[in-house]
Amino acid sequence: MGEAVFDGVGVALVTLFDERGDLDAEATALHAARLVERGVRAVVVAGSTGEAAALTPDERLELLRTVRSALSATVPVIAGTGAPSARQAAALTAAAADQGADAALVLSPPGVADARPYYRAVAEAAAGMPLLAYHFPAVSPPGLPVDVLDELPVAGLKDSSGDPDRLLAELEAYGGALYVGSSAVLALAGPLGCTGAVLALANLDPERCVAAFAGDATSQRQLAASHLAAKRDFPAGLKRLLADAYGTSPVARMG
Fold first, then answer.
1. C-alpha to C-alpha distance for 171 and 153, rounded to whole angstroms
2. Which of 119, 158, 179, 239 is flagged as catalytic?
3. DSSP character for 13?
4. CA–CA distance, 24 with 46 (Å, rounded to integer)
5. Is 134 considered catalytic here?
């Protein structure tokens, strides 16, 4: 499985749009750079939080190139490349690798009980670039059974289920790097030995996310209101919180 792509807290980056709804890659990259200065260890572009389903292939690549150029080479930039079919995901992954992504986050396909062929096809297209599998059954059911995780050609897994029983099962059964995607379980995940986290809420409050992952229960509790607010009308609700806090654009294409 190789080395972990990163450890600690990464951000599932929002994609910023201007008032017309056009991609603002420069503003998004500036936002990413500020988050890195505040302790974020990796940046995921064009993931679920980044409204990937509403981006064209060209926009995905522009976003990737712009964010990559704004950050130190020591900060991994991970491209979201999951898609409904293996052919689509493989093409997105190959393009991301060609444009400088350090890794790809690959959402499991919807309606597929056995995702192993899908991940094998994506791994072949990645040509050695590390992959992270992505379990998010609320968005793309049924997700990934725990008992097949070690058979996937990936460097790690992001689990956004927020299910503590599932997390315990993964820690017992899975040998790869494990990242949580729910900010509700950070103070559990870090002390139990998860490799890191990839969080939408790190767009808003990266310092508390880092502290909660380190086991600070007070910080975990302080994240609760923002966590619950960001989940409502997602991702538009999160963008409104960001706009109120930092003056970024609240425009969303989804939600």
1. 18
2. 158
3. P
4. 13
5. yes
Asked whether the beta carbons of 78 and 102 are under 8 A apart, the reply is yes
Residue-wise pLDDT for 150-190, tens only, equals 999 999 999 999 999 999 999 999 999 999 999 999 999 99
Q: CA 113 to CA 116: how far, in whole Å? A: 9
CA distances 249 to 61, 144, 147, 245, Å, are: 21, 34, 42, 11
Evaluated on CA atoms 191, 197, 200, 202, the torsion sign reads: positive
Q: What is the pLDDT of residues 201-244, one digit of tens each?
A: 999 999 999 999 999 999 999 999 999 999 989 999 999 999 99
Write the pLDDT tens digit of every residue in 188-213: 999 999 999 999 999 999 999 999 99
DSSP 184-210: TSHHHHHHHT--EEEESGGGT-HHHHH
| Helical H segments across the chain, by residue range | 25-37, 57-70, 86-98, 116-126, 164-173, 186-192, 206-213, 217-222, 224-231, 236-246
Alpha-carbon gap, residue 248 to 255, rounded angstroms: 17
CB 107 within 8 A of CB 139: yes
Amino acid letter, 77:
V
Confidence category of residue 2, pLDDT binned at 50, 70, 90: low
- Show the tokens assigned to 92: 């997105």
Catalytic residue among 119, 134, 174, 179: 134
Q: Which residues pair with 44 in a beta bridge?
A: 12, 78
